[in-house]
Amino acid sequence: MSELEFRRVSVTYGHGRTAHVAVESADLVVRPGTTHGLVGESGSGKSTMARIAVGLTPVSGGSILLDGVDITNRAREARLARRRVQMVFQDPFSALDPRMPIGASIAEGLLATGRYYNRIDRESRVHALLDRVHIDPARAGESPSAFSGGQRQRITIARALAAEPAVLIADEITSALDVSVQGVVLNLLRELQQELDLTMLFISHNLAVVRYVSDEVSVMRAGRIVEHGETSAVLAHPADPYTRELLRSVPVMGEPLELEDA
Amino acid sequence: MSTRFTRTLRTPAGITVMIGGVVVLLATVFGPVLFGEAATARDIAGRQQGVSLEHPFGTDELGRDLLARVIVATRVSVLLTLGATGISVIGGVLVGIIAAVLPPVARRLVNALIDILLSFPWLLLALFFSVIWGTTATGAMLAVGFAGIPVFGRLVSTLASSVAGSDFVHAARILGSSPLRTSVRHVVPNILPPLLVNTASHASVTLLSFAALSFLGLGVQAPEYDWGRLLNEGARRIYVDPMAAMGPGIAIVLTGVVFSLLGALFSEKRSNRTLRALPRRSRAETRAIPTVPEAAPVVEAVDLRVSFRSEDGGLVERVHGVTLSVAPGEIVGIVGESGSGKSVTAMAAAGLLGPDSLVESDSLVFRGIDMTREPTSVEKRRLALEQAMIFQDPLSSLNPSLTVGRQLREVSEIHGRMSRSAAAARAIEALTLVRIPDAARRLRQLPHEFSGGMRQRAMIAMGLMGTPRLIIADEPTTALDVTVQRQVLRALRDAQRSTGAAILLISHDIALVSGFCDRVVVMRGGRIVEELAADRLDDARHPYTRGLIACVPDMGTDRDKPLPVIDAEPPSGREPGTSASTDPTAEHTEVVA
To answer: What residue stretches are annotated with the ABC transmembrane type-1 domain (chain B) (predicted)?
Structure first.
């Protein structure tokens, strides 16, 4: 089990007068074997946190540690460690190459392990992974267009698992899915976490979904982490006014919406 | 894909390309073998003859048959064309991909170089290269080929950088795939279709370039000959004997057309034929203005069916017999997942579906207007004033280049026949009602100066400019944050209270619908599965509705249990809950024709 720590990280896009601070001195620790929820609205910087952890966006300050190893620089050690942090994207339609059979996409995940697989090992691994995410392994040769959104999202999860990640980052993975499919994907994540002891950073704008999967939660607003703590404690007794506003805005089944002060 | 391609081949353009392609191919392969002798046999006595049965294109100054020479020249012309096109494409792909995967600074340098090369006309580049490689056929091929590299380089780098920005390339990068591997495995396969189209049309340009170079004496040299040289020789006596120049000209044009058509064929998209033909009205009917009793439903649809044209040209029914009625001032929510037909139902009820759809019903009435027929001008005006529409993405439903004020006034000025100042005053009122502060200043702004939530409220305000009886809101808050969602819903409710309009709210979020609406209509697979009062959701009987309520985690869901999962879409005629299929999202449609 691994630990992912963001230590006073800052991200600035652009230079000079057009510079825009996306993340400002954020601290966050994802404890080994737990799921850490990151909630915030659009533009809060939560997706930037995912991108810096996997190296898609450089940090402008601070460091990100995986089991104590800084993964933000360009050293070989950092690069190898970074491959142990994998990500599942929001949009399952653009996350899979439309011209590549899904089996080949999943096999791509094996690259990150740094081990060599011969054809037979590779195929059996892909089949096992497809089976793991409840997709018929016989369909490995089909292209992504033959699968629904929820199935594609499970395939991208299989690809991330193929990399044998120490930490899995899920960035809004259910927001492009129908609610019935969302349940299937969330159940799968829970299952995987229990079986594989994954450390997970679960990013979402949906408080109820974050609450369901996370042990701890951080609330982000305008590039800053405004509140963090154990999930039930934060949601039961939110200290920050913004967290309270978020909680009040979530529609509750069968209860008329309170709109008078909106 | 393959069946679609064979279908494309059966169109007139496809048949033309196939025949043309076969003719060019045969002439290339067998031309010199079959006609080589005729093309070189000299006949001094019969030189410079005009058109005859024996020599359809005449003969040249050594008495050689020109038709045979044109056919024999096909091989040289086509091979040079393909060679040069190949050089351009391969070189362009290499340059373009390198430009797309390099780090930013190097990428900018390569792109700048491409830009500089692009600013030279190709002929100038070709002349420059032919100085280096000399005036031979191969030299000309290299020259024309290299001159085409910047064109393809630019195309490929543009295409490749859009692919390079997609999530699957990011995923490959995170997994440790090298730039080279990513280019070969992901980028090239995804830019191939547009590249093929451009290669085919570029081949036709290259063919012309060669003809031009040889015509100018820079290309193929005697005793070799291609169409350009034949054209050159024929042009000297074009006034005496036009066929000597027109013969090779015809060959160039026809082959060029074959290449261009091939490109057009690759890029062909099937056009949608119009499906809807509304019955016309008699004049007496046109003049009659129906009176609307105030208590009558705003919308009443009986057995509404909507079909669209499918990929293979058949009709696919998406909405299978929906009966829906909305009372004045009522707030009705339609809930369903993607493919349930919820949006299509609402759009059909408002008469807003395009000509690619077929709407059938036993009756479809909006406040006394029969929506199954073409509306009269009076009815059109009433529809414009009495219906308001709010879509998910306000940025695409507002015109980005007109001020918000101008777009708000449009309804009142055109359909309400208001003066401009009266409409402007009304716009300020409407914007104030949806709680946009400083309305007068805001009206002078463009849509991009509004935040997402404000744009959505401006759309609501636009609906208020008429005399709305029905506001259709299709996923109005799906793209918005939850805190902003409340403001938009408040604006919607204020609008409903101040005008007495009914609202048809379409959403995937059953919690939201239950909190905002009077009545909830649950749709699945193009059918209504259940209708119930919003405060009686606990009484839901249908397993799908109950599943929909249970599968969404809320702030009280037990975290130690897996979420309940809705069973797969029932095959036609079966009740949900009995299906054993494992695909919960398979789209359920019925093929009609």
So the answer is: 74-263
CATH number for the domain that contains residue B571: 3.40.50.300
Domain spans, chain A:
92-164
Residue B125 placed within a domain: yes
- Beta-carbon neighbour count of residue A255 at 10 Å? 13
CATH number (domain holding residue B89): 1.10.3720.10
Contact B492, B435 (CB under 8 A): no
Q: Are both B208 and B305 inside the same structural domain?
A: no
Note the pLDDT of residue A155.
Answer: 93
- Whether B280 maps to a domain, the answer reads no
| Among B262, B137, B254, residue whose Cα is nearest residue B199 | B262
* Amino acid B249: pLDDT: 86
In a domain, B283, yes or no: no
pLDDT value of position B334: 93
Using pLDDT thresholds of 50, 70 and 90, give the confidence band for residue B273: low
Structurally, how many domains does chain B consist of?
2
Clarify whether residues B316 and B246 are in a common domain.
no
Chain B residues touching A97 at Cβ < 8 A: 168, 185-186, 189-190
Compare all CA atoms of chain A with the CA of B519 and give the residue at the minimum distance.
Answer: A254
List B residues 559-578 in contact with A (Cβ-Cβ < 8 A). Answer: 559, 562-566
Spatial CA neighbour of B468 closest among B497, B510, B431, B445: B497
Chain B stretch 429-488, residues whose beta carbon is closer than 8 A to a beta carbon of chain A: 481-487
Question: pTM of the prediction?
Answer: 0.79
B386 and B466 Cβ atoms separated by less than 8 Å: yes
Tell me if B407 is assigned to some domain.
Answer: yes
Query: Nearest-CA neighbor of B510 among B458, B561, B553, B567?
Result: B553
**Which one, of B204, B321, B220, lies nearest residue B252 by Cα?**
B204
Backbone angles phi, psi at B547, to 5 degrees: -65, -40
Looking at the structure, do residues B258 and B332 belong to the same domain, yes or no?
A: no
- Residues B243, B310 within the same domain: no
- Alpha-carbon distance of B343 to B505, in angstroms, equals 10
Q: Which two tokens stand for residue A133?
A: 């995410």
Chain A segment 1-40 residues within 8 A of B by beta carbon are none
What CA–CA distances, in Å, run from B86 to B23, B148, B189, B218?
A: 21, 10, 17, 20
Q: Which domain holds residue B410?
A: 299-591
- Do B230 and B330 reside in the same domain of the chain? no
pLDDT greater than 50 at residue A240? yes
Token digits for B468? 């709305």
Residue of A nearest to B547 (CA): A180
Contact call for B512 and A257, based on CB within 8 A: yes
What would the pLDDT profile of A85-134 be if each residue is shown by its tens digit?
A: 999 998 888 999 998 999 999 999 998 888 888 999 999 999 999 998 88
The last residue of one of the domains, among B243, B266, B289, is: B266
Task: Tell me the three state secondary structure of residue B473.
Answer: strand
Q: Which of residues 165-194 of B touch A (CB under 8 A)?
A: 166-168, 170-177, 185-186, 189-190, 192
Residue among B170, B175, B186 minimizing CB distance to A111: B175
- The packing angle between helices B243-266 and B188-215, to 10°, is 170
Stretch A36-62: mean pLDDT: 90
Domain-ending residue, one of B266, B291, B311: B266
Q: Considering only CB atoms, which chain B residues are within 8 Å of A89? A: 167, 170-171
> Per the CB < 8 Å rule, is B174 touching A86?
yes
With 70 as the cut, is the pLDDT of residue B4 above it? Answer: no
Closest-approach residue (CA) in chain B for A43:
B481
Q: Which residues of A touch B547 (CB under 8 A)?
A: 180
Which residue, chain included where needed, has tokens 């543009």?
A: B158
**Contact flag A211-B515 (C-beta cutoff 8 Å):** no
